[in-house]
Amino acid sequence: MARADDIVIELTQETPYIDTIVEVVATSEYVIETFTGPRFTTSVDGSTVTTAGWLDSWVELRQGETILRADDDSNHVTGVNDYASKITGTIDAGTYTIRATSYLNRIGVGNPTGSYVLYSNLIPPPPPAIVIDPVVSPPVEPPPVVEPPAVEPVTPPPSPPEPPVVIPDPPPIPEPPTYEPPVVEPEPPVVEPEPPIEEPEPPVVEPEPPIPVEEPPVVVEEPPVEVEEPPVEAEEPPIVEEETPTPVEEPPLVADENSTEEEKEIIADALIEAADGQAVTAEAIAEAGLTYADLPPETPVQVRQDENGNKVVITAEIAAALVVLENPAELINAIFTDPGKALLALGSIGADMSPEERKESEKTIVAAVIVGGIATQSALTVAASAGTVAYRRKPQ
Fold first, then answer.
1. CA distances, 145 to each of 57, 151, 153, 278, 359 (Å)
2. For 164-178, what is each residue's pLDDT tens digit?
3. Phi first, then psi: what are they for 47, rounded to 5°?
4. Which candidate, 303, 304, 249, 294, places its Cα nearest to that of 272?
5. What CA–CA distance (Å, rounded) separates 289 from 258?
6. Residue 359's closest CA among 33, 20, 103?
7. 190 to 4, 256, 305: CA distances (angstroms)
8. What is the CB neighbour count within 10 angstroms for residue 204?
9. What is the structure's pLDDT at 53?
10. What does pTM read for this prediction?
11. Strands (E), 241-327
């Protein structure tokens, strides 16, 4: 819902950024945020295209030429508010400037054209409109109608025929870039391990009976003479300290094909508790015998790491939807049995990319659009020149 103090930021090639000067009269907490909307939309034919006029916002809080705070994607929500910015904090009284621009302009790639909404509690709302009641004047009688004298009509001379107007053909409209779904590589065949070779058991050897041995004759010894010895004081037994029993770790819970939904829910709760507020890794989910669909939809899960080691964290619901794209047969089945899941999977393409990978992909798309625009403009110029040479009136 729009607010009265929202500002629509319209950026063009000639206007790469917009500055808003604000006055702070006392130490205040502030918030500066942008709203970009979703980056991708689904067309009638089911393809996913980039939203027209979409921009990756960048905001700065300045005092003079000093940049106090800056942000790129802190207000980002995938599919709702893609790559939006947000800055919060506390500032003292003084004069400040809020600069709204784009990420591509900030890194020096170019000046993209598009718009987004800027909001800050530092920007005062516009004053209400003042409505002035109109002054009612007394009716004025119209002057009497005076008929003009009769004038004979003058026939103008015939005008020469105008030359035919040549309307050039409209230039071809470049088609928007299409998004090709990722190529899903087939899974390698499962190699079943060969059964172990059973070695034959050795034959049982029965032991031979022992040979009887003759015992020697028993010699009766005389009893020894008892000698009285002084009494020996009994030693106190040593104090045995009881050892603390070693706690036995219980084996982790693992779900199998016979596990009920209640058992899977218990295992999922144990995984989330073990993560201690962090995202649950895909390895931990697989080791527990679960899938993304067995976790609560809003659970953050770490699905992968990019080549720079950056962790990619999305919700379990989006991760479960992206699994459908890995199998074309499963995607077709979801279109007919669960269209909502299929649309979520198609709308979430690229969600498992890190912000760095999105930046690199965005740079590639922008470069391709710039090169394509130059080529299209050159082709239109050549076509226009050819049309001018070809149309010449024949001599009479």
1. 66, 18, 22, 89, 76
2. 555 555 555 555 455
3. -80, 155
4. 294
5. 11
6. 103
7. 62, 19, 26
8. 5
9. 78
10. 0.35
11. 280-281, 300-305, 311-315
Rounded to the nearest angstrom, the gap between the alpha carbon of residue 27 and the centroid of all alpha carbons in its chain is 35
Q: Indicate the SS3 state at residue 40.
A: strand
Going by pLDDT thresholds of 50, 70 and 90, the confidence category of residue 306 is confident
DSSP state of 291: -
The residue assigned the tokens 């999105």 is: 358
Mean pLDDT across the chain, nearest whole number? 76
H or E element at residue 39: none
* 3 state SS of 69: strand
Three-state secondary structure string covering 340-386: HHHHHHHHCCCCCCCHHHHHHHHHHHHHHHHHHHHHHHHHHHHHHHH
Nearest in space to 324 (alpha carbons), one of 336, 313, 311, 312 = 336
Provide φ and ψ at 342, rounded to 5°.
-65, -40
Q: What is the DSSP string of 75-120?
A: T-BTTTBTT--EEEEEE-SEEEEEEEEEHHHHTTS----EEEEEEE
Tokens of 372: 């394509």
Alpha-carbon distance of 370 to 328, in angstroms, equals 34
| 122 confidence band (pLDDT: 50, 70, 90) | very high
Name the pLDDT band for 257 (thresholds 50, 70, 90). Answer: confident
Residue 223 token pair: 């009893």
Quick one: tokens of 348? Answer: 């979430």
Q: Are 51 and 116 in contact (CB under 8 A)?
A: no
Please, are residues 4 and 50 in contact by the beta-carbon 8 Å criterion? no
Question: Largest Cα–Cα distance of the chain, in whole Å?
Answer: 181
Q: Which helix (H) or strand (E) holds 31?
A: strand 28-35
DSSP string, 136-185: PPPP-PPPPP-PPPP-PPPPPPPPPPPPPPP-PPPPPPPPPPPPPPPP-P
Q: Which of 188-197, 297-306, 320-329 has the lowest mean pLDDT?
A: 188-197
CB atoms under 10 Å from CB of 105, counted, come to: 17
Q: Which value, to the nearest 10 degrees, does the dihedral of the CA atoms of residues 285, 48, 80, 70 take?
A: 100
The Cα–Cα gap between 326 and 305 comes to 18
- Distance from first CA to last CA of the chain, Å, rounded? 68
